[in-house]
Structures are given as C-alpha cells and as structure tokens.
Specification:
The longest helix is centred in the C-terminal third of the chain and has 20 residues. The protein has an 8-stranded parallel β-barrel. Strands 4-3-7-11-10 form a 5-stranded antiparallel β-sheet. A 5-stranded antiparallel β-sheet has the order 24-25-26-30-28. Helices cover about 20% and strands about 20% of the residues. The relative contact order is 0.09. The protein folds into 3 domains: about 140 residues, Immunoglobulin-like; about 375 residues, TIM Barrel (Alpha-Beta Barrel), CATH 3.20.20.80; about 110 residues, Sandwich (Immunoglobulin-like). It is an alpha/beta fold.
Length: about 725
Amino acid sequence: MTDIADRLQPSPLGPLGAHWGGRGTRFAVFSETAEKIELCLFEGDGRHQTARLNMPECTNGIWHGYLPGVRPGTQYGYRASGPYEPKHGLRFNPHKLLLDPYARQLAGELHWHDALYGYHRIKSPRTDLSFDRRDSAAYVPKSLVVDDRFDWDDDHPPRVPWSDTVIYEMHVRGFSRRREIFPPHDRGTFGALGDGRSIEHLRRLGITAVELLPIHAFARHRHLVEAGLTSYWGYNTLAFFAPDQAYLSDGTLGQIKWAVKQLHAAGIEVLLDVVYNHTCEGSELGPILSFRGLDNISYYRLLPGDPRHHINDTGCGNTVNMSHPRVIQLVMDSLRYWVSEFHVDGFRFDLCSTLGREAEGFDPGCGFFDALMQDPLLSQVKLIAEPWDIGPGGYQVGNHPVGFSEWNDKFRDQVRRYWKGDAGLRPDLASRLQGSADLFDHHRRRVWTSVNLITAHDGFTLQDLVSYNDKHNEANGEDNRDGSDNDESCNWGAEGATDDAAILAQREKIKRDFFATLLLAQGTPMLLAGDEFGQTQQGNNNAYCQDNELAWLDWSLAETPAGRQMIDFVSRLIALRREHPVIRGHFYRAARAEFIADVPDVLWFDEDGQELSDDDWDNENGRLLGLRRLGHHDDSAVEIIVLLLNSDDAEHMFALPEPSFDYRVRLDTQHPSRQDVAPAENRCLVAPHSLVLLTAHLASTAAPAGDVDREEAG
C-alpha cells in the first residue's frame, strides 16, 4: 500500500471518471462539499482493499490525481469525508465505499446489508441521527478502469428519417431468455440480441428501431429481493455510464458494441430508455452507494427549509437535481458517452418532466433541455420524452421543446376506448389519427412528434388487453393493489384464457384493429415486443418484479397458427405504411384542395359518404368514422387513402365520398387475407368492430403542398 501511495501524483484537471492513458490512470470525481476524498483500490473478488489514497488536488469542486501503473481491470471506489449533519442535508460517512458516478463498468454485485446505510436502521428506524461506522466495501460492486477501444470498421448509423421510423420496445433479457435457438449462456444478453436470428425477426416485421428498456447498471430493490422477487425492468439506476453486467454474456463492453454494429448493418437503430430522474439510493432513509455519499446536497433536490428530506417528484424516493451545473454535466457526459462509444441512435427519457423542472416548475427552456438542444452530437440523435411524472404540474404532453418526440398516452387511451365500443370518441379518434395536432402542431413541430402506442412495458400486453377486464397482479406480492386500475381493456366474453372459438376469433380481430389503427395513423408508431405473436403475462399489468417466464417472451407462441398469422399481418401493415407516404403524412391544417381541384385534402365522413356536420361530431352514439386523405405519392402521382372504422356491434355499408376514384381494398381486419379488391358501386361493407383501408392513385394535377414531409433525418 505504501509503495502505491508514494506514486500517487497531482495531475492537470481532466475529464471526470477514470481514464487510462497507456501508462497509468487519471482519476477525477466531483464533490464541492466534501472535506477529503480517498481513492480505494481492490483486487481479487473485490473484498480485499489494497490501497486507500488521498486525492491530492481539488479544483472547482473536482478532486483529481494520477496513478502510474494502474491498468484496465483495476477495481476502485471512493470514500468521502465531511460533516454528517442530516438536518443540513450533509451525509458524509467515510466508512461507506462509493461508486464512481462516471464508472464505465462494474465488478461484483450489490449485496443488501445494513452496513450500506449511513445510520443504524434498527436503533432508529424513522430517524437518521445515529452514525453507522460499519464498513460497506464488502457489499457494494466496485468501479472498473476500462479500455474503450473497439474496431467499429465501417459502422454507420442508419439515420432512419423520423417519418419512416417504426419502434419496437423490448427488454434485452426478456426478448431472448426463453428462445432456445440461442446458446444458453447468450440467452437474455446482447449476445442474442445481435445474433442474425434476432435481427431476421425484426427485419421480417419491418422494424426500424429497437427501444431497449434500461441497460444502465441498476440495483435490485431490497424489499423485492427479500421477498424472493427482483427488479426486472431496471428503472432503479446505480450507474449512468456502466451497463448492467447481467446483459453481457462475455462480460465485455464490446458485446454491446458488436450488437449495435450488427443491428446497424441491418438498417435498425438502437434507442436506450434512460433513467436520469432518480437513482437507486431512494429517500433519505436509503443506502449510501454513490451520489448521496459524495455530495447529497448537489446531486439531489432537497426540501426547501428542511434539507433532511428529499423531494420525491418521481415516486422513487429522490429526485436528481437537474438545476446544478455539475449534475447537468453528468447527464450530458453520460449521453455523449453512449452515442460516441456505443453508437446508439437516441434515447427515451423516463419521467422527462422531472428533467425539465426548475424551482418554479416545469420549463421547456430549462438548462438541461437548452444544453441538449445545443449539443452538436446529441441534438442530432432521436430524443423521446415520457412527458409526465407525479410532481407538481407533471403532466406535460405536447409541451416539451422542439426536437423532442413524446409518448402520447392520449392516443393509447382513446384508441383503446374506441375499439372497446365507448361512446363519444369520434372527435378524439380523429385527432389521434391525424398525428394529435391538437397537442403537437405548434412551434413548427412535425407530425412524427407524437409517438403513438397501444401497449408498452408498463401495463397489459396486447393479448391481455383483449383477454382481461381486470388486472391479476397477485404474483407481485402486493395483494393486487399495484398497477393501474384503468387499463380500458375488454375480455370480449371470458376472463383470461378460453376455448371459446368465437371469443378467440373476436380477440384476434380486435388485436388487428389495434395494430391497424396504430400503423395507419399519422405519428411515430411504437410496438411492444411479443405483441406480434400474442405474448401474455396472464393478466399481470405491472410485471416490474417478474424476472421469470411470466415476463420473458414465449417464442413458442410465434409458431402457433395464430402467432404466424399475426406476425404476417403486422409485417403487411408496416409494409403498407412504408409504401404509402400519405399514411405518414403531415399535419393537415385546413380542408385545402392542394392536389385535386375542388377536392379537399382531408375529409371526414359518415356511412352516407357525406362530410360530418357539427351535430355529427357531437353525436355521442356515433361509432362510425370515415377518413379520406390526399397527398403526393411521388413526383407524378396523387395518392388517395380512405380509412373506414366501425366500432359498432353491427356491420355498416359505407358509401365512399364523391368524387369516385379507382379504389382498391388494401386491408380489412375482418378478413385479413382480403386485399386488392375493388369495392362494388363505390360502396364498402365494414364488419362490426372492424377497419378497412382503401387506396387509389391518379396523375398529379397540382404541385406538392409546401409543408408535406419529404425529409427528414433524426
């Protein structure tokens, strides 16, 4: 230990984290309130501390030094000394080993033990006045010095235009854990995701981007572990730069890069679901693992006037302080690292309203958003907001800054209600089909700003949405109290699994209705992995703690007749979307006649083929809706598409509006094999709870509208 300590050297201020330079490693960590920071080195299984060295310099709140001879693979951590004054928000405890917030890989696992806490939990369970002197090093993972080198060869980001993007939300582990075509050690890891057989399925569907549930290293909640469960989704971040080791079958960062490279070669982008709004340290009663021990009052938002307590706008115990410049730097550096080192193509920000909340409330011009939009690297990738949290003014759908797309829960809920047969949904459905212009058509945002979804990881799968009226979360151990009580689902005659052929047929048709509405609406569609072949969670709408066969995709369903048929149907829908630019379209701001004289570019009509009147829109019992849209197919042709939707219990004959065109039925959810059929006498029968798509083409008679989407790189 003495020999190493004698070689610890002062160094110029450099980037935060541990950076190997070929002959040694520079270390730098931020804390503006600590009185001393020590660098601790470990070897072997991480339990044996070989050195405890004072960081020699502190510049602008950054403690830094250089250690010759330290190479990639070295395990390290920090200890921070300073006041332990919880009533002032200060929680320093040098007995607790701390992860480097910039650690790029971790060694070992988090083992829950009371020594992880800064206070004696047993003696004072509801206060944090007692000081715990037990050493936590044996129970926490260690930070690793890494070598980031990787041969990317000729990798190029696909840069799929937003207008062409189809997103597939998936869990790296759950996607392949049960797929027996992969070697057992690769199942549930990037080793399987980058495999050609995974990519073949995505390409068969027509997917252009995978959105991965959090892959950052995360802590498994203690109460779940002690109950025999675990944190599965990963929304409990431990380290913002390091991937979770469970997703690496070979233990190397290169496996993620290899998988990204394979997906890029197939034209598929990789988006990461990232959680910067809170960390796994929880409330003031939580453990000291990293941020809290380094600088609690800088990294977290604390209650004004009572900094003993954390602000909990996230519902997870703490809220990351995105008003502090060093915290903004941490998040920005993390994002840039994943783009520059792993070539990821974008991010979905969990509880993004939290990231935009300043002291006075949500601000689309907050410091973090401004930094993001001005960054020459990050402003060029895809950025998606989950535009809500539980904090004050937390629901901000449509209010994020230009450059963000946003998850659209109104699309999800209102489309679900429409196909369930609820009354009074005509105006809402029309808005959702047209890119939710009521929410997003401002500040020259584009129609793809709305990320449309029917299902996501949080809630019912599509199969369960049509199979259950109520949630069935008993396996979570919370007496079925957790999860949403308002899924807008319908079981169509039986709760859960059934052998009734009529009910099964109805469920398959309603699923086709959902897929068709999602993929034929304007906006950016997002599918949930497994929905294309009938994945079920047995009615569990909150499988966050189910790292088992309940949540892992059951690939045997893809080989059933129903599974194969639905995969084919979804593939055909995505192909239709790709084939017809008018489906993707642009915001229609008025009933103009840009393409054909005296024919409006957009027309809403009822089964009589006549434009809907104000009374028609206000009719609570109106469950039929027709939509005709015109646009340029290419430079020499006008394309007309017609959508006919019927959520009524009876079939209805639609008269197609004048003028008459040479229509062909391209898709019918009642008869999924029906296509390229001409409607008789300009009329089309639509079965109960069904959707029909018709298209026509004719020679262009006018120049393209000036704001038609023809763009547009992410």
